[in-house]
């Protein structure tokens, strides 16, 4: 039945995302987890069968710590679908796992250019900024996470701690 929805493929351009984000932003916490799951599902739905298959195999490879294979597959994913934000997001996470921080940041930046609402990428970037001692930028990034997903308790906690640390400092 899901295939009858009129959307053979989704990704960050899927019009259903606008409604899900609005519901996530103004809705209650009870539905937040469900909405986040649906958003992640739509983002991971690649724009073609080939890219979808490559992405799924890259994700499985990453889950099994076969990072070289995952990166090779993700290079093909972003080559075939250069506007598929989730391909860059996953490649960024895999690059982080292989300690390629500059490559990860480059991929995360591209993912955000394609999908500015990508709260998962923003959260990861906030942690990277924080690990580099850039507290103000990390705080700002956590605020962006909360703008799109106000129910993210980790981002809320991290922002609260950073706010206390930044109070009294010149902003």
Automatic annotation (TrEMBL):
<feature type="repeat" description="TPR">
    <location>
        <begin position="119"/>
        <end position="152"/>
    </location>
</feature>
<dbReference type="InterPro" id="IPR011990">
    <property type="entry name" value="TPR-like_helical_dom_sf"/>
</dbReference>
<keyword id="KW-0802">TPR repeat</keyword>
<dbReference type="InterPro" id="IPR019734">
    <property type="entry name" value="TPR_rpt"/>
</dbReference>
<protein>
    <submittedName>
        <fullName>Tetratricopeptide repeat protein</fullName>
    </submittedName>
</protein>
<dbReference type="Pfam" id="PF14559">
    <property type="entry name" value="TPR_19"/>
</dbReference>
<keyword id="KW-0677">Repeat</keyword>
<feature type="repeat" description="TPR">
    <location>
        <begin position="85"/>
        <end position="118"/>
    </location>
</feature>
<dbReference type="InterPro" id="IPR050498">
    <property type="entry name" value="Ycf3"/>
</dbReference>
């Amino acid at each position: 039945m899901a295939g009858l929805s009129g959307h053979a493929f989704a990704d960050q351009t899927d019009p259903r995302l606008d409604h899900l984000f609005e519901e996530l932003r103004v809705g209650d916490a009870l539905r937040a987890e469900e909405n986040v799951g649906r958003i992640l599902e739509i983002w991971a739905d690649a724009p073609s069968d080939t890219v979808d298959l490559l992405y799924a195999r890259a994700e499985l490879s990453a889950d099994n710590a076969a990072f070289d294979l995952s990166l090779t597959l993700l290079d093909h994913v972003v080559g075939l679908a250069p506007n598929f934000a989730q391909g860059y997001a996953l490649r960024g996470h895999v690059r982080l796992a292989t300690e390629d921080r500059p490559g990860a940041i480059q991929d995360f930046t591209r993912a955000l250019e394609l999908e500015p609402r990508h709260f998962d990428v923003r959260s990861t970037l906030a942690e990277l900024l924080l690990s580099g001692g850039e507290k103000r930028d990390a705080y700002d990034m956590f605020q962006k996470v909360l703008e799109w997903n106000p129910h993210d308790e980790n981002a809320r906690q991290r922002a609260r701690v950073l706010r206390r640390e930044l109070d009294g400092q010149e902003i």
